[in-house]
Amino acid sequence: MSEQEKPAVPEILTKRISRKLPVEELEARILKFLASRRMCVLSSCRDNEPRSTPILYKSTGFNLYMAGEPGLKLGNLKINPRVSVGIFDPKGEFSDDWHDIVGLQISGHAKLMDKQDPGFIEAFRLFGRPEAWAEHWYGRMIEVVPEKIEMFAMELKNEDYAARQILMLP
Fold this sequence. Notes:
Elements: H1 11-14, H2 23-36, E1 39-46, E2 49-56, E3 58-60, E4 63-68, H3 72-79, E5 82-88, E6 102-113, H4 120-125, H5 131-136, E7 140-153, E8 164-168
Antiparallel strand pairs: 1-2, 1-5, 3-4, 4-7, 5-6, 6-7, 7-8
């Protein structure tokens, strides 16, 4: 194949930009993205054995809440509360448009909440289920408190910002 026959590399892939979004703008975009999605992948680890679990979530601010059924993930979180959460916009999965690639990588720690723990009922209510169901449910609520949120959005390059932005939280 000659140089003339080779397909051109899209400009968005060759555009090198390192400019950071203002923190307030990054926070707003992350919060909007979190509120627009429902599904994530929660990754935990025990004895050097990683486990990634697709799970529904709800967010309040930057914190994520998940209704965890009994299983390996809850056992992992009891032993090691360090977690990673991945969330992406599924539009990018079937699109040939590089601008559709967007997602979050969250690093933080998880707190497990039993029915008697403060915040359990508030977290349970986020899922819109009757409160009476909580009484008969055997799972636990999982609260993920982020320490670092990495946003990757190719469309940011069109605004002359780096595609990868990092928000550190206290």
